[in-house]
Write a structure and sequence with these properties.
- Helix content is 20%, strand content 30%.
- Strands 1-4-10-2-3-9-7-8-6-5 form a ten-stranded antiparallel β-sheet.
- The N and C termini lie far apart (46 Å).
Length: 176
């Protein structure tokens, strides 16, 4: 199986887990695929998290402060266990790298919990996600190809796709 097929399979598995968690917890959390990269670095800074939520989930979302290449952007994290675990890492500043011309990725300082993950959902542009097999954070600037149980959506960033696609550094902090 080639890398793209393995990734699609992993995303499908993540999507299934995400959907199950959403059904059990009424929460939405997608994740993202990631390639191993020594150029990515994770440094803790100010807290910020974000998530992609449906309008009915907005009441459980956590607003975060996100800065892409020095420019602030509105963002939220969902209320999934993985998103809450991610919020515990904040503040973070991460260097981003392109992955498959679909997302920007960075290594996290540690792996996040995947227990209670919602049913898998295909990532959409602006989604902030966690790809469990590699322990990385992904910021999608294009819609992902499919849902995966290994990809947990943590939140959503409200920015145009060109800005997301060109981002080299992200700072995420808890909103005050």
């Amino acid at each position: 199986m080639n890398a793209a097929a393995l990734r699609a399979l992993a995303r499908a598995a993540t999507a299934t887990a995400v959907l199950l968690t959403v059904a059990a917890c009424t929460d939405t959390s997608p994740a993202s695929p990631r390639a191993t990269s020594s150029a990515s670095s994770a440094r803790q800074q100010a807290p910020t998290a974000q998530e992609h939520t449906t309008p009915s989930d907005r009441n459980t979302a956590m607003d975060i402060r996100v800065t892409l290449d020095g420019r602030p952007i509105d963002a939220t994290l969902n209320d999934s266990p993985a998103a809450r675990d991610f919020a515990g890492l904040l503040p973070l500043t991460l260097d981003l790298e392109d992955f498959h011309q679909t997302e920007r990725v960075a290594d996290l300082p540690r792996r996040l919990t995947t227990s209670g993950a919602p049913e898998p959902a295909a990532p959409k542009a602006g989604d902030l996600a966690y790809y469990a097999p590699w322990g990385n954070l992904a910021l999608f600037y294009r819609d992902g190809p499919s849902a995966s149980a290994d990809l947990l959506i943590l939140g959503h960033i409200d920015a145009d796709t060109d800005r997301l696609a060109g981002a080299d550094r992200i700072t995420i902090e808890a909103a005050h």
